Amino acid sequence: MSQTAFNSIAKPVRNGAAARQPQAPGRHIHIGMHAGLFLLLVTDIAAACLGPQLGSRFLLSAPTMARGLPSQLVYAALTVITLAGSGLYEPGPVRAPLDHATSIMRALVAAETLSLLRIAVLRPSPTAPPLGTSFGWAIAAFTLTATLLFAGRIAVARIWQRHGIGVAQGAAALVTTAPCDRAVCDQLDRLADHRLGYIFCLGLATSSGLRAIADVATLEGLIRSDQIGDLIVVIRRGDSVQTRGRLDALLARLADQPVRIRLAFDAAAEIGAGDLAAGLGLRLVTALDRPIRPLAASAKRGMDIIGAALLSVLLSPLLAAIAISLCLSGPVLFRQRRIGLDGVPFTVFKFRTMHPQDATGRNIPVVQARAGDRRITRLGRVLRRLSLDELPQLVNVLRGDMSLVGPRPHAPHTSGGDFTFEQAIAFYGVRHRVKPGLTGLAQVRGLRGPAERRDLVTARVAADLDYIERWSVWLDIAILLRTVPAVLIGRNAV
Known about the structure:
Blueprint: H1 3-10, H2 33-58, H3 69-85, H4 91-95, H5 101-122, H6 131-163, E1 171-176, H7 182-191, E2 196-201, E3 211-212, H8 216-224, E4 228-234, H9 241-253, E5 260-266, H10 267-270, E6 282-288, H11 294-314, H12 316-327, E7 333-339, E8 345-351, H13 378-385, H14 393-399, E9 403-405, H15 421-424, E10 437-439, H16 441-444, H17 454-470, H18 473-489
Parallel strand pairs: 1-2, 1-4, 2-3, 4-5, 9-10
Antiparallel strand pairs: 5-6, 7-8
Helix pairs in contact: 1-9, 2-3, 2-6, 3-5, 5-6, 11-14
């Protein structure tokens, strides 16, 4: 990817009319997430209290157990509980109640059923109206409650949309190279579960009701702070080669970021039956995602802690013997900055395998070791041959910087000859979407040692991506079991 393409996406974007322009002080009252939820809660409770009361006053008499403020509050509590249990206080359903009408109705039916069961159990027969009248009142009360609740939620949704409530944490950002009108943005918002809150436009943007992101550095900052969790990249049939290059450069730069990247395209336009402005067949396709879900990541982390702790105890005599041997001729450990999860650097630990400095006392530049490298000590050759120099990275695993299994961590801008690894593979950063590992699929396949040709780098990254694509606990176990014979064979070890 050319440097020009990277520079072009880093330039500030003209906001145009795409951003919500801040209003003058005194003319705009900011409403936060907590205030928005409180407003919604008050609206739902009011609807649940007023619905039965209006039904009793204007239609049919309410049963004894449904009369009075305490009974009304019990029904309101049941309504709120069923709505909350159905996830209807999440930002998506709140911002688009009509899109979640079925879920809201199911929750209201559940609340009404629980209320009727309560009335049936506690119903004092001498003072209660006939059972048929009670059911008639229940139907009228339910209809009025549902009508009031939907009306209130539609009003609250407009307030949320006007003040941008519910799009702060983990929101979706629209990435586009040309104007997107409001109709297209609204449809993409629905496809993104109403989480679209930002727009990053590489060209002049028209009014879209979204908050504009000025440059790629700001976009990265919002991703790092978890303000943006999704990127929706609009792909147009008529995009020029230069435009596609700018998008490729942007995606390559964000490949190691903790964000899901989805491509939006118009299926009708792709077959010549429409255009993006019409938006007749907009579709979203996931290009890059977090490969390990939170629950699976917790299981992997637990396996890392248990495995690293056991190995540290079992190998402690060997670790102590190596440390004593190394301390006689210089430092025991070698420390170096490596790239970890989401592209965040960390310090990796290894047993020192090279002479600390040359005869003149000057530090030797750190470059990739090669066969016959004179910097490597006698003990260092043995350690490298058996991969024992990597054992201190058990500390990195316990600290959470690394995992037992994953792509091997590389130093930033590692040179493979006349190129860096990042230059050899455009989407090299994808391998940083999981934690680096003490061992990995590339290592058990014998892809070790210096990579002085681009095809060798490509083979390693391909193995890393294969691991990311096929990850499972069983794959981790299989790689750990294959690591021992791979180390003993020592293929390509330097």
